[in-house]
Structures
1.
Amino acid sequence: MTATAGAAVLALGLAACGGSDDSSDESTSGEEMSGGGEVEVFTWWAAGSEKAGLDALVGVFEEQHPDYTFVNGAVAGGAGSAAKDLLQSRLQASDPPDTFQAHAGAELQDYIDAAQIEDVSALYDEFGLTDAFPADLVDRLSTEDGAIYSIPSNIHRANVVWANPTVLEDAGLDPAAEYADLDAWYEALDAVEESGQTALSIATTWTQVHLLETVLLSELGPEAYTGLWDGSTDWEGPEVTAALEDFEKLMGYTNDDRDGLDWPDATQQVIDGQAGFNVMGDWAEAAFQEAGAMSPDDYVYFPVPGTDGEFDFLADSFTMPVGAPNPDGTKAWLETVGSVEGQEAFNKAKGSIPARTDADTSDFSEYQQSAVEAFANDTIVSSLAHGAATPIATLNAISDATSKFTTGASDLATFQSELAAANM
Amino acid sequence: MRHRLRRLGAPLLLLAPSLILLGVFVYGLIAANFNTSITDNHTAAQATGQEPVTTVWFQNYIDLLGSDDFQHSLTNLVLFTVVFLVGTMVMGFGWAWMLDRPDRGEGFFRSIYLFPMAVSFVASGVVWRWLLNSNQGESASGLNRLFQMIGLDFLQNNWWNNITFGITAIALPAIWQLSGYVMALFLAGFRGIPEELREAARVDGASEWKVYRLVLFPQLSPIALSALIIIGHMSLKSFDLIMSISKPANYQTKVPAVDMYVFKSSFNYADAAAVGTILLVIVALVVVPYLVRTHQAEKR
């Protein structure tokens, strides 16, 4: 603990900088960092389980850092696109919030290149996060020169298949069956299709990209899959062609109205028994919970066939913007985000899992516990559709190419060369 | 000279605030947009000055216009505009023509037809997304379901998910929303024609068709032109309706405005600005001749 005097000097210094004009509480509690003032936290968590998670996290923050006032900068709408638009213009105008939510990984690259966020790897050492997070995860988060630009608050798994046992039984399948690879899965998909239901429900382009990435992972394995993003795997190679053929085959099992739907509609089809399978990240768990469905009677889940032992991760994380009005406040928020209590409270409410392996998850749901175990033991790879693997421009180009292919406007060879071009 | 200045002084002073605001926020920003469009500002780093930005003149325009994807967007835009224009003109004129006959219930039907215009494109887009669901057969819903119920199964189609003509399905809600407006324009046109002219024509022995063809239609042509220009420039700028029915990444419903949005969200400001300029030029090609014509007509 730093002496009170030191903290007081810090507070004075901040006040002199004009960084904490709104601070009404100048008292120093003897906490390690104690500047006081408002901390504006910019997110797109404005409703549902995300809002509940944020509220829980704020509860821990106020307990750990009573000097600081949390200011909710949440912007609702468009699954984060409204927030990202506003954030883009605020950062351009050098008016950043104290911290903002962003997908961890390569999606941060644009902010890094634009010198809009700070390297926080020093905080990893200070808060002891390097040891608390799995080594694989720290690798995925680090840039080539070893810098890390954000602290993850939660982890989601993308390579999960959700299925309706009743539909599977009607199709003569064993709901508890595991499928070793995609070929084994095709037989089950054929059976569901013959029973008259949609075999594999899917929604608009991003969910198709989501399916594409899990198929690539299944076909290529974790090493070659990761190589797609650093250039060591050839996009024009025969393995990728084979994976794209699988993707094409899987798209043949899907519903026609996919492009007009978003993921909850596709997952709902499994909940309602209109579709057999759905590939979606584990936020779908919250949809099953809301519908009052219980596993394993009402729904079952398993890793996408061929990706057992692999954890296709994405994470929300918080950054330290360059020129944040209250940098000590940012630090205090990041400390809470990375702390055991913060991660437990947040993830229990949101339905995701903590990035820390030392968090106590004994009262988490059954699915969450299985994901926690997988996260600790599996090989961790980065999700494409959710910004962990590539910068936004690359993802947009891949999405365009995917939409063009799945609507039938391009053939497989064109699709593959467009994917290759997108990753140049 | 001094006399002239005094004569112009007061009006100029009064106009100055709006002139300055327009100058900065419309023409100034158009210039700034054009300025961005002739650079290679394609990344976030360049936008914030971390990396140098160089002027590449019309390279972005050449690349865009030469790319298959942007040509697809332009084709979509043309298809959408043609269907939207023909649809609203035919429906709007038809309704106005029917309401022009002095039957009962005119006020009632006028409100009914005009009402869709009060709904925002985003709200009607959400409803039409359900109506234009592309499922067919057993899982059909929306209009496809309706076709099944009334025994017109063969009319079922995949609506906006057709690769070539999908965009024209989105023109349906646009027509639904704006036909009433075109009707109001035409109705005002009909009412603006003095009753004496029709009577005079009838006294001269003109048939009802001839009254329309030779007396009424010629006087409606300025109205028709205004309607075409208004609907045409709205159609060219269409974005919200398309976005709320489809999604920005969906290939089948791409138009330049959607491309602009996607470029901007990829931090590709130069290409976004170039698409913006292209759109502005297309709209100007439609609107400027009209303005010139109106100006000349007023002078006469």
2.
Amino acid sequence: MTTALSTEELTKIEAHITAHKHMPGALLPLLHAIQDDIGWISEEAYLPISKALALSVAEVHGVVTFYHHFRRHPAGRHVLQVCRAESCQAMGAEKLEAHVKSTLGVDYHQTTKDGAITLEPVYCLGNCACSPAVMMDDEVYGRMDNQKMAELISEARGA
Amino acid sequence: MVKVFVPCDSSALSLGADRTAKTIVVEAQKRGVEIELVRNGSRGLFWLEPMVEVTTDKGRVAYAPVQPKDVPSLFDADFLNGGAHPLNLGLTEALPWLKKQQRLTFARVGIADPVSLDDYLAHDGYKGLKNALKMTGAEIVKAVTDSGLRGRGGAAFPTGIKWNTVLGCESDQKYIVCNADEGDSGTYSDRMIMEDDPFVLIEGMTIAGIAVGATQGYIYLRSEYPHALKTLNEAINKAEAAGYLGEKICGSNHTFDLEVRRAAGAYVCGEETSLLESLEGKRGLVRFKPPLPAIEGLFGKPTVVNNVISLATVPIILDKGAAFYANYGMGRSRGTLPIQLAGNLKHTGLVELAFGATLRELLYDFGGGSASGRPIRAVQVGGPLGAYLPESQFDTPLDYEEFTKIWAVLGHGGIVAFDDTVDMAKMARYAFEFCAIESCGKCTPCRIGSIRGAEVIDKIVTGKDHAKNIQLVRDLSDTMLNGSLCALGGMTPYPVLSALNHFAEDFKPRDFGLQNKKVAA
């Protein structure tokens, strides 16, 4: 699936490049700025980034694909991350994962049909004292169970 | 006016602290009562969050856990004056969980508003820096060396020795890099410092900069910690405005600038050389050592790379002296360790203690046993690359060398408990799977070994060439241990082999693979 960027989005990318290109080690801060703004990093951004930072397009692609955080496709309106790490496993994360997947009808790295939620695995949210934990966008939720999960999902779908 | 404290730590928020705070404010307005709401850090008693505290003339009184529905009854019970209520826990300071601890690095955590510089100064903040400004770089490094502080990120390398190497390097530019890529499951002490007492980290990094002659610092913060990012940036701005960062720090001739850089979800970037690559804007591939980062680190310049807790411990060492800190602990493990209780425990949270307490004391005296009420069967200490310990090893004292003796690691001080429903073959398989997902791909033992390892565990539990494949896992682990470039591949055998050695019964052939724990007859 290819999604072309709008002129407005390309202008935004140019502005981020201008704002970041003189930073030492600029590539990660720049990619963060683009993703925070547009929601994902399109291959259309590779060429202008590579020119501004004196890198090859392959190097930019290499960095974007190395890090789990950067997404190469648009996400849903919300991103739900379910923790799969040991502490959460000790408190039933596996059952929670299965429940979330069946409720949403998607597997990891997929988006629900209504475009509301993209499901991602995560390996520790630093909320291990309140396992199992999930993160919806930038908010962490602890001691999750199916009931709390259902409330969180319906809230996200409504918003 | 009565001060009401409701934590803003993200674990407290994850249990609804914002809603509790809002309900208290609304209820107070409704009743025409004036209160001052303070969003403090967490005291670290996470099974009791959201914990609300009020100031009384006897001290702070705690009510916990407080959900919005409890708020009207708290007002009815005159909780603003410490009134009796089923959720009243008495004076916070008198809670046994806190009283039994030795909080040095975490001395201020949970007490005040994390981003109030006035609160920080009122609670002994920046005393360490004031002392450091009167000392030479070599004297500061000596104090850190004499304190016995060792890297709290996991490798336990003496902090003072690392600093001394950077101090001894001639260079036009040096860097202080804080490793805040706290990716180990079961750990959250870095997050707590950054969210609940960010100035102590800023002060520690400033002292490090003055000691070794570095003028630029970076905090490499994992992207999973958005609250810490916000808090750190707010605190850095305030420190700059007050002359604690930037040029002429506190009127001296020292300059130190600090910037937070966001990581991007790669566990391997917690490894120091991979972290430096990432900070330089590259893929987080592990570097060969030597050269040591202390000599050729960030952008090829001498660089101190320290964990959050190591740096946040420096201010108290400079404030109270190396001897004060070194007086805590046992053997070569000096000072205190902020221990994080996680997983299947009744009482999870932050426990800072001098080295030497046993795992059993932490699991039962502090942790209160399992949350599920079932027996604790296995405990993983030190994150996803730490060994699984059986009950017979619960009397091991928390000490770097004692853990080495039982082929285990203390790591970053995270303790994850599992009850007797855990399937240890599954945990061993998960260790390989995690390594495969997070491998940077540079060295073969880690990149390929992890994938083959997970496959072999599948064969073992389905009974395919059982004895042969058990031996194969051991051989593979040996290759990974000795042939990997960094700790990711090199330590994945710890959880795998400890599971196999201590819980061999879980590796017997079974009918339905890992989906069913039932062992075949």
